Amino acid sequence: MPANASGGRAAEATTDAGGPDASAQETAADASSDSQSTATRTSGASDGSGSDWNTGGGYSVRNSQSWGSQSGDLIPTGRDLTLLGLTFSLYPVLLFSALVPAFPLFVNVVLGGCLLLVVGYLQSMPRIALLVFGPWSIVMPFVLLGLNLSFVSLVGIAVLLATWLPLGFTVLTISVLRL
User: Fold this and answer.
1) Is the pTM above the cut of 0.70?
2) H or E segment at 61?
3) 32-48 pLDDT, tens digit each
């Protein structure tokens, strides 16, 4: 039987079981196996971007990742751009509809739940959430002034919290993920 047929360990059938050579061969095979697995773990392939890939195991793992701050990273494209446009335009409508007392309480509660779901969903895509909540956090105080609503009224506090808190969560998510 070859020496590597059983996963890099020497076969015990090569010598008499219990003989003095059996333990010496197993020790030598263990040392050979350990050095081989160490070499496999540390050898990696490069994809040209400066990060190494560990290709020795059953799956590839990127050892390092450098996040660039290119302008192309901030501007979404395709499906993300559609999501940005829809949520940017519908978020204030949904927010004010959830807070306006002209609707029945049940409708306000359902719209508030939908608003929380939208905020939670956008937190899973922090770059889009930043582009939605950032501008609205700046614009909403001026909207409140234009509608003659006080900042310290119930609606004013709710509107400011509904824009500034998601923005804060987004910034925390970005800082934790280092995007």
Assistant:
1) no
2) strand 61-62
3) 554 444 444 444 555 55
Residue 122 Cα distances to 14, 71, 86, 88, 171, angstroms: 63, 20, 12, 11, 12
How far is 166 from 128, CA to CA, in rounded Å? 12
* Contact by Cβ (8 Å): 99, 159: yes
What pLDDT shows up at residue 155? 81
Rounded Cα–Cα distance for residues 20 and 154 (Å): 85
Name the strands in the sheet holding 45-46, side by side, starting at the edge strand that comes first in the sequence: 45-46, 52-54, 61-62
- Give phi and psi for 54, each to the nearest 5: -85, 110
Query: Which two three-digit tokens encode residue 41?
Result: 């773990």
Q: What is the pLDDT of residue 135?
A: 92
**CA 26 – CA 6 distance, rounded (Å):** 12
Name the residue with tokens 């990696």: 44
Q: From 142, 137, 143, select the one nearest 160 (Cα to Cα).
A: 137
